[in-house]
Please model this.
Amino acid sequence: MTELRTHAAEIAEQFSDHVEVTEDEVESKLQQLVEEYQVPLDEATRSVRNSYLEEAGLERDEISQGGSDQVLVNEIDQDEQWVDLRVKLVDLWDPRSDSISQVGLLGDESGTIKFVAFKTSELEKLAEGQSYELSNVVTDEYEGTYSVKLNRTTTITEIDEEIEVGDNSDTVEGALVDVQSGSGLIKRCPEDDCTRVLQNGRCAEHGEVDGEFDLRIKAVLDDGQTVQDVIFNREATEELTGIELDEAKQLAKDALDTTVVADEMRADILGRYYTVTGPTLGRYVLANEFDQHDGPADAESVLIKARSI
Model:
């Protein structure tokens, strides 16, 4: 079987339950793009797949890319990977969008991971504390943080088993010696399944959009031996700095400059000692919990002291 035929067979299998499609038909479309228009095969495959998604009225994450493997949540390290999970629903959160049916935290022996289910998927609601087998969920990644999305093809099975949820959190401490670029008042993509930070008003996936304001701090802790990057989300940033989102937006409006928010925050937190606890994702520890130790100090002297420990 040629490579082109292999791609055609995969696409035909993916959409066979949704539209009338044959391998020959898909192969013909791919062949035209590749041979007549000199489109690379990978790009041609995406184009043909997108045309069937539009015809079927489906989103990309509602079509499996093949068989799903059962994995532990801390083994998830790829975007748009189709997996099966045996998990317990640890916590439910209030959805921040009307399009979201449920959002919360799933866990197994390896740790926990965020999940989202959208109303359009029309899935049964999960119950807090209940254990489930979830088949055909798709992974999502943002800035090294992985989550899973339940979709129309997800199968939910309750299981009579008490799954012990492991703790995948790390604890780090040190002097906060830097507040990195991308901190303070930011804008995120408003699309329901996207939280990417906008760059010059553009989302890497959805293009130019009207963003929604958010807060975060990307900080560096130094304990004198190692440095660790830490991310504080909006809730943690508000607690850390005492500046809430509405106040941050007003500061930026008064100054006609969003960077003043990060400057205001930096002046208050730089040079303090913190203990931060949360999962390590890529190069960052996500600050689920934190404690501040001593009062403020000169940043340079704090750095010298930390590195002398």
